[in-house]
Amino acid sequence: MQIQYVKKTQSFILEELSRLTGEFKKIKTREVWEYPEFVRNHPLSIDLDLCTKQGFLGVYDTTITEVGFQTYLKRFLQESIEDTKLNFHPDEIQNILKKNSYFAYHLLRKYLIPEAETNEKFPLTYVNAEDSFWKKRRFLKGFFPIWGVFSPVYLSLGLLFDLPLLPLLLLINGILFVTYRNDSLKQWKEIKALSSGASRFQKTFVYLAKNRKPTKQMIGRISSLGDSSELLISPLPHLILNLICLWDLWKIKSLEKWKSKFGNLWNDLRIKIIKTDSLLPFVNFGFLFPEASFAGSSSAGNLSAKSLVHPLLPKSSRVFNPLTKMEPGDLMIVTGSNMSGKTTYLRSIAMSLLLAGSGAPVLGSEFEFPEFQIHTLIRSQDSMEDGVSFFYSEVRRLSSIIHNAESSKKIPVLFLDEILKGTNSKERFIATREILSVLREKRAIVFLTTHDLKLAEVPWAKRFHFTELEKDGQMDFDYQIREGVSGSTNALKILKKEGIPIRNEED
């Protein structure tokens, strides 16, 4: 076990180094189809590449519990969490990171499971205090302790002194066993689940417990009870024990006593483990990048930053850009040539907003954000099955966004990349202008990238752009945002660079 733990620690450290250096391909992440359906089909996942092999959700996932993993995903996607006990205070991640520089790392190591496969998630069973087994068998509950002692004693004496009625006694016990066998198997299933959880999360239980002595007793007793379940593998010994002394009932009685004594402690620690598990990916992000800073909330509904960058860019490729102050109803239009950084800038703001909303630090400084509802329309999808075109898909999404903005008390923040691509330029301009007007009325903060310079004429827009530079006759990009509208294009240059002839460039 110790060798397994050392190997697991080594694997974890190598993953941490890959996260730190941005070599995400070295990290074994999930395939898109391995995520829950609601996550892989979520607009944020699609538009921000959250579930790709090198997407944020997979790269920084350190969770080990099934519920912790689900909670982590929902927390980042700003979805509601059903169990209110798993909701978090905005300062929780910051408080964990403040304790000392290596506390986050040691906490993560307590969550390592030596025998776990990569990305494997484990259940941590909730202890249900409701006594469904004995509720149906109140008479048996009082009768079996007497009968369960009498039976083996009488059988032993009967074999020694040739007493009568031994077959009848075995028949009675057999009939009793048949009446409770199906329900007792469910109890054994619960015992095995609790025992497995206790064994698997033993280090974590003890580490997070305020009083370790009762916690160790709780783990020891349920583990011992779980060891008894090994007899279920062999049906014959299991049957014989129940014929002799109603063995299942004694174990179910022991489970009932364990629940009575330790059930509340188990459930409290279970919530603490799962909640911490769901926070650790964000804690680890802050631990790896101490230069990241925590955002401040804006009661006025403003969104701004002195600097920010996309969290998945390696350190060597990071270019920090400011985010001008955006108030409810504001529109930012970002123009620029191809590959200059427009869409990455939008994704940088969106990712920073999601991190801040999760209580995590942001790669940047002086990030201020409102209570928000985020929407993205960056990568539209058509559907052959439903007969839905790219254009109609976008229209439906925009209609849904506008409808949600009407009913939400939060500030809608929208990220739109080259919207309404599937129609002619005249209708596209009119439709986009009207959509932006409606969104302004809804007090939405809107970020829009476009190649259509006419759109930049919208009077209330804040105009910014990215551009390419000429270096030794070649295109070069500095990925720095600048005020105003872009005056350069590079589509023809890219075509010529790839060997596609442009015969009438002047036209």
From TrEMBL:
Transmembrane segments: 139-157
The entry's keywords: ATP-binding, DNA-binding, Membrane, Nucleotide-binding, Transmembrane, Transmembrane helix
Top-level division of the source organism's lineage: Bacteria
Any one of the GO CC terms: cytosol
GO biological process assignments: mismatch repair
Keyword Secreted carried by entry: no
Record-given protein name: AAA family ATPase
Keyword Membrane: yes
Record domain DNA mismatch repair proteins mutS family: where: 329-504
InterPro entries, per database record: DNA_mismatch_repair_MutS_C (IPR000432), MutS (IPR045076), P-loop_NTPase (IPR027417)
One MF annotation (Gene Ontology) recorded for this entry: ATP binding
